[in-house]
Amino acid sequence: MQRSIIIRLVLPFLTTLIFNEISYSQATNSAELDSIRTYLKQQQNCWNEGSLECFMAYYWKSDSLRFVGKEGITYGWQATFLRYKKRYPDKLSMGQLDFEILYSEAYSSQTIIIVGSWHLTRENDNLGGHFSLIWKKIKGRWVIVIDHTS
Q1: Residues 145, 5: Cα–Cα separation, whole Å
Q2: If you write DSSP's letter for every residue of 68-107 in order, what string do you get?
Q3: The whole model's pTM is what?
Q4: Is the dihedral of CA 62, 88, 39, 69 positive or negative?
Q5: How does pLDDT run across 85-134, given as a tens digit for each residue?
């Protein structure tokens, strides 16, 4: 009898507590994903203005950054920046960049993955492909820690 009373009193409380935690978590993840989408839009704007420095501000400024492309893995922020600088030396070669987010998911409050496509429109040609970005919150700031672009 006492067990039945406890279950009737405690179960609704626990259910409400769990539901509120899930709702809070989903709302938090949604807000974090919105932040990342905003950062990608800002990063796209940086590129279209011809500023690789601004574009790279969204990458983790660390030797632990990884960029994976068709030529293999580039290790570190500086090497990634120099790779971009070599491939896109001026605004004309950078063209106009468009991102489309195809998939996004928060794996935790500190890790988000974004999968999308990119399209680069230039005067003499067009390029395009797909990317996977792993964003981490490091010292309170979202940064790209792994970029796989093809």
Answers
A1: 52
A2: EETTEEEESHHHHHHHHHHH--SHHHH-EEEEEEEEEEES
A3: 0.80
A4: negative
A5: 999 999 999 999 999 999 999 988 899 999 999 999 999 999 999 999 99
User: Total structural domains in the chain?
Assistant: 1
Which DSSP letter does residue 58 get? T
pLDDT tens-place string over residues 54-90: 999 999 999 999 999 999 999 999 999 999 999 999 9
Which residue range is the domain that position 14 belongs to? 2-149
User: How do 126-138 and 141-149 pair as beta strands?
Assistant: antiparallel
CA max distance for the chain: 81
Residue 59's CB: how many other CB atoms inside 10 A?
A: 21
Q: Per the structure block, which two tokens stand in for 127?
A: 């390029």
Helix H or strand E segment including 111: strand 111-121
CATH of the domain at 26: 3.10.450.50
